[in-house]
Amino acid sequence: MSDLWTSEAMAEAMGGRPFGRLPEGVSGVSIDTRTLQRGEAFFAIKGERQDGHDFATAAHVAGAGLLVVAEEKLPALGRLSIPMIVVADVLAALEKLGAAARARSQAKIIAVTGSAGKTTTKEALRHALSATGKVHASDKSFNNHWGVPLTLARMPADCDYAVFEIGMNHPGEIRPLTKLVRPHIAIVTLIAAAHLGHFKDLAEIARAKAEIFEGVAPGGTALLNRDDDHFALLQKLARKAGVKKIRGFGENPRSDYRLESCDLGATASHITANIAGHEIEAEIGVPGRHIVQNILAVLGAAHLAGADLDKAAGALAGLSAERGRGMRHRLKHPDGEITLIDESYNANPASMQAAIKLLDATDVKGKGRRIAVLGDMLELGAHSAKLHAELAEMLSGTRTDLVLLAGKEMKALADSLPKGMKKEYRDNVEEIIPLVLETVRPGDAVMVKSSNGVGFSRLVDALIRRYPAAGPE
């Protein structure tokens, strides 16, 4: 395996001081000893809860090629027989290394933000662009002040495309990250009521997301959702940031990347789209109308990046949902099968509605039921009760047979559901787990959705333990 970085280039980029005899190079960059691979550089970042310097010995044992440590911590680490690069601040050093990776790269750089669909769009871009070149992309949801520079620092010099996810909870968080990434293409997937507790209204969220335009490389493009109510505001803010090329995707007739027709299946979708004058037909391996919207952005970005559109579109049939983001499991019940849709990673009003639509489109077997297991949508602030209650109208218009709710915020939805709709409410995830395990039966389709902090992934794990998975659908 070739080195990702030479030690000399690393030290120079970070303004670091070598301590001990450095290896010729490192195979990768890590901040977590649990996933660190032999030969990688371990950056001892000090976080809110843990200090990476406390794991220096573990990194050594795991086979780290070298450590990047803070000058002030060196006296306590000097006895370790492992080479180090000593810096003033480890996170700042990682940012400098990320900037050096960006400076040496010839890749087309794509950055994705939005209130929903960021990770799905990023993964679909990784999948589609891999059909035409070497792709580097963020791991998991590495989209914050350490995840973005880490992803940059890991970017191979020879990749053709690089895809970065950039997230935020508060205004001002995207700005420094986009200036580090300097994307050629900046995508805003959707403006919705995510993290609304930290903002006055949706327009304020749009303004925070629009910070991504401030880092767009000269001659770069803003790629916006034409069907979003905030398209005009985002377009204005992109122009204000100096972005001259603005393109839109969606069903809107004025979209540059336009959906012509769509056949939404229970497990996949088929679309026909006009991508800047090219008619493209594609099978999408993940179901849902919201996925189709993300794919329009993917095809638009592929076009802007100069990728082979036919190859990119053809690759989409092999797309699969990730854990917590729509992954489907076939669970073995003694008397049949249960379909489990795992949407436990995140939730806001827009993604919650998309998941409910997904359940509505899912087939059940025999006397099976559609069961929505819903937990709190977090960070909605003073708007929380109203936004939770508003889900009642949508649920009542679907074929959902049973609604199981848990969490303080979900009480508002429990109180708002029509009397004729079967429902059960519990205070927390610990109380809802046994209820769900006792309730499900063969033929059921069960969709589990909540914000990650609620812990509904434990419910998913409990279902899989009780009814071992036959495998993802």
Show the helix and strand layout.
Elements: E1 5-6, H1 7-14, E2 17-19, E3 25-26, E4 29-30, E5 41-43, H2 56-62, E6 66-70, H3 74-77, E7 84-87, H4 90-104, E8 108-113, H5 118-129, E9 135-137, H6 147-153, E10 161-165, H7 174-181, E11 185-188, H8 202-209, E12 221-225, H9 231-240, E13 245-250, E14 257-264, E15 269-275, E16 278-284, H10 289-304, H11 309-315, E17 327-333, E18 336-343, H12 349-360, E19 370-375, H13 384-389, H14 391-396, E20 402-406, H15 411-416, E21 422-426, H16 429-439, E22 445-449, H17 457-466, E23 469-472
Parallel strand pairs: 4-5, 5-6, 6-7, 8-10, 8-11, 9-10, 11-12, 12-13, 13-14, 18-22, 19-20, 19-22, 20-21
Antiparallel strand pairs: 1-3, 2-7, 14-15, 15-16, 17-18, 17-23
Helix pairs in contact: 4-6, 5-10, 16-17
Tell me what the structure shows.
This protein is α/β, with parallel strands linked by helices and 473 residues long. The chain folds into three domains: 87 residues, 3-Layer(aba) Sandwich (Udp-n-acetylmuramoylalanyl-d-glutamate--2,6- Diaminopimelate Ligase, Chain: A, domain 1); 214 residues, UDP-N-acetylmuramoyl-L-alanine:D-glutamate ligase (3-Layer(aba) Sandwich); 146 residues, Mur ligase, C-terminal domain (Protein-Tyrosine Phosphatase, Chain A, Alpha-Beta Complex), CATH 3.90.190. Helices cover 32% and strands 24% of the residues. It is built from 17 helices and 23 strands. The strands form four sheets. It has a nine-stranded mixed β-sheet, with helices on both faces. It has a seven-stranded mixed β-sheet with strand order 21-20-19-22-18-17-23, sandwiched between helices. Helix 2 links the parallel strand 5 and strand 6.
